[in-house]
From TrEMBL:
GO molecular function: DNA binding
Organism expressing this protein natively: Listeria booriae
Protein family per UniProt: Belongs to the 'phage' integrase family.
PANTHER family: PHAGE INTEGRASE-RELATED (PTHR30349), PROPHAGE INTEGRASE INTD-RELATED (PTHR30349:SF64)
Record domain Tyr recombinase: where: 168-367
SUPFAM superfamilies: DNA breaking-rejoining enzymes
Name used for this protein in its record: Site-specific integrase
GO biological process: DNA integration; DNA recombination
InterPro entries referenced in this protein's UniProt entry, alphabetically: DNA_brk_join_enz, Integrase-like_cat_sf, Integrase_catalytic, Integrase_recombinase_N, Integrase_SAM-like_N, Tyrosine_recombinase_XerCD
Gene3D superfamilies: 1.10.150.130, Intergrase catalytic core (1.10.443.10)
Keyword NADP: no
Keyword set, alphabetical order: DNA integration, DNA recombination, DNA-binding
Tree of life domain: Bacteria
Amino acid sequence: MGIKKTHKGYTIDVSLGYDPIAQKQRRIRKSNIKTKAEAEHIASYYKQQYFQNNLVTNLKVTFNQIGDKYFANYTVDQKPTYIRTQKGYYNHRILPYFKETQVSKIEKKDCIKFRDELLNEDVKTRLSSNSINKHMILLKKLFDVAIDDNLIVRNPCIGIKKLKVVKQKMKFWTTSEFKRFISAIDEKDFVDIVFFTTAYLTGMRAGEMLALQWEDIDFGRNEIHVSKTMSRVSGENIVTTPKSTNSNRYITINAKLAGMLKDWKERQESLLSSYLITDLKDITVFQYSINTPIRECFGTKKIKKICKEAELTPIRLHDFRHSHVALLIDNKEEITAIKERMGHASITTTIGTYGHLFPNKQKSMSDKFDDLI
């Protein structure tokens, strides 16, 4: 540690070891320090930071380099669909804004400005508050990589509050509406009848249904084992484990749905034989051609077409899951049983998502007090 007196005060020249990132010796030089005591204090501070491994590197790393490292090293244990979504956030909005800015130069105000730009986008492309919050979460994760590499000391996203998210009204169908929908499907499209009926009566996620194979259905017990999910990534069908540990579950089915699935299995076997497919072992339950069906085969476009015929207000495919929960609540099923059937990670998820659908028992509770007076 070198401290020298000059005609303008004191200077320090502190050697702080080798910088493995910048690949050169790390030195701190400061001048024009008024007193020797102050110079010693500053030099001691940098030494302390060095021994506590809190010093940032001198290497000028740009934001896009941090992004490359994040997706190369920090997402290896994530599902393909998660990575696809995160890359979408990054490539479409985050990277074009920060580009090749030096990471150490980015401040909290820059992150707030980025968020405000998302808020002020044209109404046609503007993201929801929930989506903007997710962009900011990813941005924070990117700066955490910079902290891990000693490029910055503090994450500039810390202290930026989340935007308030207005919960959208949940859409679901009553039993009568679902029956009208099913009745509008032509018998020749029997696979559609079976698919949407299964969705309505089990509450399975779309990916879980698309990954379903015949070996997953136990007709002796009338039970479906949900152990995988299918997603479309870069033009390929990717089968992975379900959303969470609790999503790996068994779902009981009613006798009529079991009968419908058996009927479809026979029809499927006959249908696929025309494509010279005779072994159903590796075939998915709802496959009706030589290709494995994807979400779009049963998605919004098809639902809207059927709803137009049935004169119904369309809902999304995922809303069949919501409709199933509404049906269970109407049947007065216990919330813990609903949680297990839906494969939620915790009861909090079930209550937070569907709590408002449960009947308000406040009046019946207070009416009982009359018996006490």
